[in-house]
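User: quick one, fold this
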Amino acid sequence: MRVDVLTIFPELFVPFLAASLIGKAREKGLLEVRVHDLRDFTEDRHRSVDDEPYGGGGGMVMTAPPWIRAVRAVSEEGGGRQPWRVLLSPQGARLDDAKVRELAGRAAKGEDLVLLCGRYEGVDERVLETVVDEEVSIGDYVLSGGELPAMVLIEALSRQVPGVVGFADSVANDSFREGLLDHPHYTRPPVVEGLAVPEVLTSGDHAAIRRWRDREALRATLEKRPDLLERPEVIGRLTREQRRLLEDNLEALRGVEAGKS
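Assistant:
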């Protein structure tokens, strides 16, 4: 997977790209991330990337020419393949697991990704009209720039690349993968502050463990993100037992203790 990032703060990405699974994936050649300084594509001696908005108002707007030159230059380095160009913006489509898999699918088919990290009051609309394929948002709030959202997206995308995460099951069982939140997790020691690991998890009964995890995933979703259960595609993925619990005994499900099997 290859990702190009356009930003006026390339230094922000240095520690992020060197650490943890991202750094290891880059060392192994599983993930290629190239960060470009947008100011390298300016043509004035001040390397300006912003100007006052037409019509007045506060703040500055990022000018279109540097963005257009940068995106086109990076795109030409892709060996003739047209990349998918994403502007990180609070006005974009909400980033969720489905969107991550969609973008990862593009990359898996050989389509490079270009991430545009805006700043200030935003970018000139003509950037969107000429060199942007879609806008993506990580939530309904405003940050100072698109760099952190770009890192979030890169982190999420990297987990879809085979070999980046050591255990494939870790990705397959992530929250949202089947539309539900993940089930609770436990590890040693067996008792912490008087709280014991649910007996079913140490029983060795894999069928019972699976049922417990399915049930607890549904319970967690009901308690924390009930809105997810309003989606038809999520309901369609529920197991028979989950459907029964959801339809027949919602209140009882919420009251189930985590230690019961």
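User: anything notable?
Assistant: DSSP finds eleven helices and nine strands in the chain.
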